[in-house]
Amino acid sequence: MYSVRYELIKECRRSGARLGKLYTPHGIFYTPMFMPVGTQATVKTLSPEELYGMGSQIVLSNTYHLFLRPGHELIKKAGGLHKFMNYNRGILTDSGGFQVFSLGAIRKITEDGVMFASHIDGSRKFLSPEISMEVQEALGSDIAMAFDECIPYPADFDYVEKSTSRTSHWAQRCLNAHTKIDQSLFGIIQGGMYPDLRRQSAEQLTALDFAGYGIGGLSVGEEKSLMYNILGKTTEWLPRDKARYLMGVGTPDSIVEAVNLGVDMFDCVFPTRIARNGTAMIETGRLVVRNVEFVEDFLPVEEGCGCYTCRNYSRAYIRHLFKAEEIFGMRLLSIHNLYFLLNFARRIREAIDNEAFPEFRKSFLENYQDKTRNFPICGE
């Protein structure tokens, strides 16, 4: 019996959208959901109480970064990640694979694992399926992710075939090494942009019967039309009774399209990263608040938004904070952007429940202007 399990509540009759519940040791959470990213055991500039107030359910922390600093043994001594970061709802930890493979020339991949140079001090480190499981068990997250090889884009068929096979072998090794009974393990589907390899990966990993499935290797630079095409094929090969997690995707247009294709869970550093650069997420796209046009604009970031920022502060004030290089400006936009996405996910859930998701999707996409291609976004 898994410590984390998914319950399918309702499927949209006119799309692939799903309404569900995720049962975890730290609560019952509703899907589709967006998971704020707390790379280094913190969602940048926000407290757990602020996250609770805006409806945050599960947050994601980064195995690679916590392995390097402060170290998983220290976090284990503290009583695990929930106590260490004082977050009492769900926590998902990634495997460290994406960050390691994004290091490029300063890492070497073998069948055993990956040797790499720490970005902190250049020291030599090694991660393998077994070590990733050891670290994630010490962190004590509710959901751990299997160690995989994240495939770059573009990549030729032979490379992707070999890499996808390695991910499947590593997935079995993760299952063999994983022993923590109050932590569930999700496998990660790879296969690049090749439907046959995506299907092969899905069949091999679903045969291993993980508690849920991540969909990796998308939103790594490909056009969104290609991402949706591959994603739609991939979800068809995944079980209906397990959670589906599209890794590293966090723009509202991509979320609504992925929900339409049957995805349940999302994460991305996008909302907090652009907030620190003075950009707000709004219903029609993005608002670059630091721009000169807002110097005398005393409207909230988005009229009608219920977040703390929009209830209390103006565009002009936030622009002033950025020009004065005050950290409070970054906090205010981070609060707004995370509220926006968490509330967006709530609205999607309501639309599915009310049999109105196709209309919600159509109306949103007609008004949304920020239809850019996918650029790879690494950690915070």
Characterise this structure.
With 380 residues, the protein is α/β, with parallel strands linked by helices. The chain has 15 helices and 16 strands. It has helices at 48-53, 63-68, 72-77, 81-85, 97-101, 129-139, 157-177, 195-207, 224-236, 252-260, 270-276, 308-312, 315-323, 327-353, 357-367; strands spanning 5-11, 18-24, 27-31, 33-35, 58-61, 90-93, 107-109, 114-117, 124-127, 143-145, 184-189, 212-215, 243-246, 265-267, 279-282, 285-288. Helix 10 (252-260) packs antiparallel against helix 15 (357-367), helix 11 (270-276) packs antiparallel against helix 14 and helix 13 (315-323) packs across helix 14.
Question: What are the main properties of this structure?
Answer:
16 strands; eight-stranded parallel beta sheet; three-stranded antiparallel beta sheet; single chain; 380 residues; 15 helices; alpha/beta
Strand-helix topology:
Elements: E1 5-11, E2 18-24, E3 27-31, E4 33-35, H1 48-53, E5 58-61, H2 63-68, H3 72-77, H4 81-85, E6 90-93, H5 97-101, E7 107-109, E8 114-117, E9 124-127, H6 129-139, E10 143-145, H7 157-177, E11 184-189, H8 195-207, E12 212-215, H9 224-236, E13 243-246, H10 252-260, E14 265-267, H11 270-276, E15 279-282, E16 285-288, H12 308-312, H13 315-323, H14 327-353, H15 357-367
Parallel strand pairs: 4-14, 5-6, 6-10, 10-11, 11-12, 12-13, 13-14
Antiparallel strand pairs: 1-2, 2-3, 7-8, 8-9, 15-16
